[in-house]
Amino acid sequence: QVQLQDSVPGLVKPSQTLSLTCTASGGSITTNYYYWSWIRQPPGKGLEWMGAIAYSGSTYYTPSLKSRASISRDTSKNQFTLQLSSVTPEDTAVYYCASSLEVTTIPMVCGHWGQGTQVTVSS
């Protein structure tokens, strides 16, 4: 069973780049047909799928964030990372990493989730 552990960035200033890393255990991020997603939930709002990196290394992004988001991986550490540039207070949210066995933009399709990390964008 795959377990996911988010990193903990906490507070980020506006215009800076947010960086989050998720470490997978119990399975390799290169295992065939697994997709590794980043999902967030702003206060008082629903879950938003942000993007994903596939077992192959291919990446996918939601159109609204494509210009600011970048997902990469370090296979030697079994980690994948989200970078979100030019953040604003509207990027304040709980950020989750998650895994799925298909390409999906629907958060609830993801079977395994990290515990979530609160990120606050404020000066």
User: Helical region count?
Assistant: 0
Could you tell me the strand content as a percent range? over 45%
Helix content: under 10%
Give the SSE order as H and E letters: EEEEEEEEEEE
User: How many beta-strand elements?
Assistant: 11
SSE class: mainly beta
| Average pLDDT figure | 92
Which segments are poorly predicted (pLDDT under 50) over 5 or more consecutive residues?
none
Gyration radius over CA: 13 Å
From the N-terminal CA to the C-terminal CA, the straight-line distance is 40 Å
Major sheet description: 7 strands, mixed
Question: Could you say which overall geometry the principal axes of the C-alpha atoms support?
Answer: globular
